[in-house]
């Protein structure tokens, strides 16, 4: 049996590692000085990078300034890098702009793979898991109920649901991080929400990105960067205020929320003389601050954009809404509200959620990774310190894997012989050491919100008859263009 195991291992290695060790990475020829910068400035970057993969294969390189980028475009190569060789690809590139907005990289999502980052991630992960086991579903259900109530009051009116999605999803993070929820028109809440929205939008802008690639530009005035720093300052003053309130009322015996978990670690460390945990000495209040910021940034626009995409696609295919509604009525009935434990009994709803995640992975290029040592992908040598972009959008639209990859067809998962296995072909939350920290939270949110909304309402085109544009705006977060829908109540529930 040892011989069989060794043979299987050898077969697996040759399957995932083609025999081109040391071959130079292919890639498009660039222009003098700027290299492939024009490729990186394309408005629909993930789509363009997927197009390049048709010419250069699933792994290729782009150059600009003095930097080389490696782009990964298929599920296989992304999994090889981020899962099989997770430690080699667990880093984040050090960038001028990233460090300027995160106290020098003391950040969960932009922070490099260091012992202190590992502590920060572990603490937040454990805390989110604790929420999952205790109050997460109640918090999500509470927000889904409020959203339905608001939609109930707007029935028959044409409206853009994006803002409502954003507000309710942001409130979930407020609850988990600060054990507080806000009313829709609360001043602090509107301010936090506006700051996050602006940071996510500005962060992807070319004039800010150029500061990282061309250091000389930092010497010149840059209006976009100046207003970004002003928003970051506002963000920090709000977070600082909540952090102070938490520190002032903290009690060791009662850990109220994620912020308390992080404060507790800080306090325990201060009481210990010389912590034995590697990286603990460097863990500071700024790490706590940035972890909270990241939960808001990572957990608001992503889920909210996903909900907006789901409604946009469903308006195009009303029969999918009807099938989900019938499934919910048959399995759960209309007497009670759906709960997360119902998810395995609602295969068509699950297939629809998976299909929206496939078609519109809301973080289409994940967050850039960096190699932590010399390594390889698909047999190509990749040196330490290179920036690596996992093109999740490209992997989800790979024509060799998916039939009609650009079409919205939940049936591809619902009718698969093994739907669970079929869903493993997508990686919307990325994978490995930097896999989305909020994946569990997001999955509960997507299920509960979609089930609540489709059980009670039907989403129709507005009176103008204009269907939502399915092209979207490609930034760090892939958002649909603003659209309006008419929300109508389902007859049985209404009665
Ligand atoms: C990172 C997807 C919701 C928190 C990421 C990444 C992706 C992603 C692709 C980048 C992983 C990488 O760099 O390889 C999504 C999707 C969501 C979602 C599709 C919803 C539909 C959330 C939520 C939270 C969250 C609800 C918070 C509760 C984070 C954080 C990171 C991250 C903190 C940084 C992780 C790290 O660098 O170690 N997410 N996300 N996300 N996400 Fe999410």
From TrEMBL:
Domain of life: Eukaryota
Binding site for heme: 436
Name of the featured protein: Steroid 21-hydroxylase
The keyword ATP-binding is assigned to this record: no
Cofactor names: heme; heme b
Species this chain originates from: Latimeria chalumnae (Coelacanth)
Main location as per UniProt: endoplasmic reticulum
Enzyme Commission no: 1.14.14.16
Pfam families per UniProt: p450
Membrane topology: Peripheral membrane protein
PROSITE patterns tied to this protein: CYTOCHROME_P450
UniProt keyword annotations, A-Z: Endoplasmic reticulum, Heme, Iron, Lipid-binding, Membrane, Metal-binding, Microsome, Monooxygenase, Oxidoreductase, Steroid-binding, Steroidogenesis
